[in-house]
Specification:
Chain lengths: 353, 400
């Protein structure tokens, strides 16, 4: 079995992350309940006429993937695997409201076409003329992890050499309003540094795109080795038992973990899963959190993956992401754990390479 | 590592039947499931025809024993019906006994509820339970729950009309790599105003019965359906002494990288997908006995797919037909519906007629099989081609 490496990254998020030479040096302290991304100059990457027609999710996905391809020094890849919870949801909203408001008349196809979940993956392929394998996973908080698992399987078995993977989701105004009705979004704004102490239900919503070139060969730009990824639709054992079981399957124990990257989003009802780990088996481990920086969305864990990759490459953990102060001498092995509203849990294991 | 990927169970609900045997009977009798739409109030009701499933949501909820406060979209309801049949057919009683996964697919997801209550949600709290069932992964989570599958690998693929073929492909790879011992794979999509109007704006909906590979084809009929298959490793088949219905022998996915919705005229993506599937299967084109084509009856698809078939098979094109005239185009579910039909073809040594065909296409001289044909079959190749240039092929075989 071939080993799998993260060879490059490209990130567009609610922080200024599109510049790969920086690593969370300037922080935007958000105070809203829905966070917009810090946009790169899309025109630098996409011809203006094309950019105007593109949905936000497509633009973010295309540019994040270009950043990743550029850093990896590649013009093309063997496969493109995308994760997205809702696809280009603004176009879905546009099309549904047009159907209702105009009684199914005077409709145009653009928003219908862009609403198809695989439109981002399809557009990336179209842009670089990649005729290879092209999959899109749409499974809530495990959308990105599904892409990661698929790519890892393929690279392990040497069925591909370079694969572009990513997670992308955009904010939809109407969809967010609906989620407000059922208290999935926090009702009162809270400063990002206070997110985990909110004691309230719901999360801070956001959007973003995080893309990576995964490969089965290491090079100078490599960030980390992807050792394992596992997903669970539901839990029957405790999250601590499951974490230990996952580590054992990879011949590791809790003591081998230099940092644990947790997906806490400040929702008092569901942060209990993370708290069980941070107050229990990982209480003496350096704990890392990130959703106060990038907000919550179905593929927010791809930002966690970006963060962990950077930590392993640069051997530096930005202060803003620290949940406690253990400060290990080096970062060799990092465990990521994420879930959303008690479903679709995942563990990902990255190592220094 | 498992060399073979055995199919040990199947379940299906479509416009031509509520289970595997009803679907097979309709296929053999040439019985179409295409009619005027009755369950969705659309202004296009006189201008289109669809493949609709008879049961109302209420009837399906009752059948599944769901409580009144359930929040199942129609996509989820259809999916649960088909997946439960597949599990029963495979004789699985304790689903968590082995490493079992569920790979499902959908393009519509919970859109039927989204469009129904889009504005009403704000005024009427009773429907708000459906807000959580809008996203595509929700119907899969519900199937897992209904099957009793816990703490397992469960995910959803959405690559438009090739979705379910891709679910079968991922499932097969998970079995081969040893990641899973067995996996339930398939797809489900219900009819919705969203897709009806979407395809309407693309001007590819026929106002009458769809006619795949016919010179005068007018477009597709949308359909709703769900189908699931149980895939198991060699080890499982041996350990449980399982009856094998057929094998997943090869698979391939490629991208046309030509246009957002249209296929390239020469069918580059479909050609690559078929070639890749043959390579994985270790078969030559002459080893294929029957092609169950994607054949949606749109001008673009049938030309592009036909050309791709000619490119792969040359002058020796095997018998081929599209079953879309029976079921309509069931979008994300199509690859799973036609996988069930491929297995039934292998089991019964029959090739289904390409219904409604009258006039030979001008662009090439290949003609679909138009009558039911009995023939010893060893391998069936099934195509699924979708938006975003997504092209998939799965090859099914009688023997490993």
């Amino acid at each position: 079995m071939k080993k799998v490496y993260v060879n490059s990254v490209g990130s567009i998020s609610a922080q200024k992350t599109f510049d790969n030479t920086q690593f969370l040096e300037e922080i935007i302290a958000h105070t809203e309940t829905v966070l917009a991304v810090v946009n790169p100059n899309y025109k630098d990457y996409i011809p203006p006429a094309a950019a105007r027609r593109m949905a936000k999710g497509i633009k973010m996905g295309v540019v994040a993937s270009k950043l990743a391809l550029e850093e990896a020094g590649l013009e093309n890849v063997d496969a493109i695997i995308t994760g997205t919870g809702m696809g280009c949801v603004r176009d879905s909203e546009k099309f549904v409201s047009a159907i209702i408001n105009n009684d199914e008349q005077y409709l145009t196809p653009t928003s219908f076409i862009q609403s198809t979940h695989n439109t981002v993956g399809g557009q990336i392929a179209l842009g670089i003329k990649c005729k290879g394998y092209n999959f899109t996973y749409v499974h809530s908080s495990n959308s990105f992890e599904s892409s990661l698992l698929d790519a890892k399987l393929m690279l392990n078995c040497n069925e591909a050499t370079n694969i572009l993977i990513g997670g992308v989701d955009e904010i939809g105004e109407h969809t967010t309003k609906l989620h407000r009705l059922v208290n999935h979004v926090k009702t009162t704004p809270i400063g990002s540094s206070e997110l985990l102490n909110s004691n309230t239900e719901g999360a801070i919503f956001s959007e973003g795109a995080n893309f990576f070139v995964l490969a089965n060969h290491k090079n100078e730009s490599s960030y980390a080795e992807v050792v394992g990824v596992k997903m669970y639709n539901s839990l029957t054992s405790t999250v601590s038992d499951l974490a230990q079981q996952f580590l054992e399957e990879n011949d590791l124990s809790v003591n081998d973990i230099d940092a644990v990257v947790l997906g806490n989003n400040g929702d008092i009802t569901f942060d209990t899963y993370y708290n069980e780990l941070s107050e229990g088996i990982f209480s003496a481990t350096q704990q890392v959190y990130y959703k106060h920086l990038c907000g919550e969305f179905n593929t927010a864990s791809s930002f966690g993956f970006w963060l962990a990759s950077k930590v392993l490459k640069y051997q530096h953990l930005p202060k803003v992401a620290k949940l406690n102060e253990v400060n290990p001498n080096s970062f060799k092995t990092v465990l990521l754990y994420n879930q959303y509203r008690g479903e679709n849990h995942s563990f990902t294991l990255l190592c220094k390479c | 590592m498992s060399k073979g990927v055995a199919i040990t169970g199947m379940g299906i609900i479509s416009a031509i039947g509520n289970n595997v045997s009803e679907n097979y009977a309709s296929l053999i009798e040439g019985k179409k499931g295409i009619s005027k739409i009755s369950k969705i109030d659309t202004i296009h009701k006189d201008a289109i025809m669809v493949g609709e499933i008879d049961f109302t949501n209420a009837a399906l909820e009752k059948q599944l024993g769901l409580s009144a406060d359930n929040n199942y979209s129609r996509t989820a309801l259809l999916g649960v019906v088909a997946a439960k049949q597949a599990i029963e057919n495979a004789g699985i009683t304790d689903i968590n006994k082995y490493k079992t996964g569920l790979i499902s697919s959908t393009s519509v997801g919970g859109m039927d509820m989204t469009e129904q209550y889009y504005y009403e949600y704000f005024d009427d709290a009773t429907h708000r339970k459906y807000i959580e069932s809008h996203h595509a992964g929700d119907s899969t989570q519900k199937i897992a729950k209904q099957l009793g599958l816990e703490q397992s690998l469960v995910t959803t693929i959405s690559t438009a009309c090739s979705s379910a073929a891709n679910a079968i492909m991922l499932g097969a790879r998970l079995i081969k790599s040893g990641e899973l011992d067995r996996v339930v794979v398939g797809g489900k999509d219900c009819l919705s105003k969203f897709t009806i109007n979407g395809f309407k704006t693309l001007m590819i909906l026929s106002d009458t019965y769809n006619t795949p590979f016919d010179e005068n084809r007018k477009g597709l009929n949308l359909g709703e359906a769900a189908a699931f298959l149980v895939l198991e490793s060699d080890k499982m088949v041996k350990a449980e002494n399982k009856k094998v219905l057929a094998y997943v022998k090869g698979y391939g996915n490629a991208n046309d990288a030509f246009h957002q919705t249209a296929s390239s005229e020469n069918g580059d993506g479909a050609t690559l997908a078929m070639e890749q599937a043959l390579k994985v299967a270790g078969l030559k084109p002459t080893d294929i006995d029957y092609i169950n084509a994607h054949g949606t009856a749109t001008g673009n698809n049938d030309l592009s797919e036909g050309r791709a078939i000619q490119r792969v098979f040359g002058s020796d094109v095997p018998d081929f037909s599209s079953t879309k005239a029976y079921t309509g185009h069931t979008l994300a579910a199509a690859g799973a519906i036609e996988a069930v039909y491929a297995v039934l073809a292998l089991q019964n040594n029959v090739i289904y007629p390409n219904l409604n065909f009258k006039t030979q296409m001008k662009e090439f001289d290949i003609t679909p099989q138009t009558t039911l044909k009995e023939k010893e079959l060893q391998t069936v190749l099934s195509n699924s081609l979708g938006f975003g240039g997504n092209c998939s092929t799965v090859i099914f075989s009688k023997e490993q």
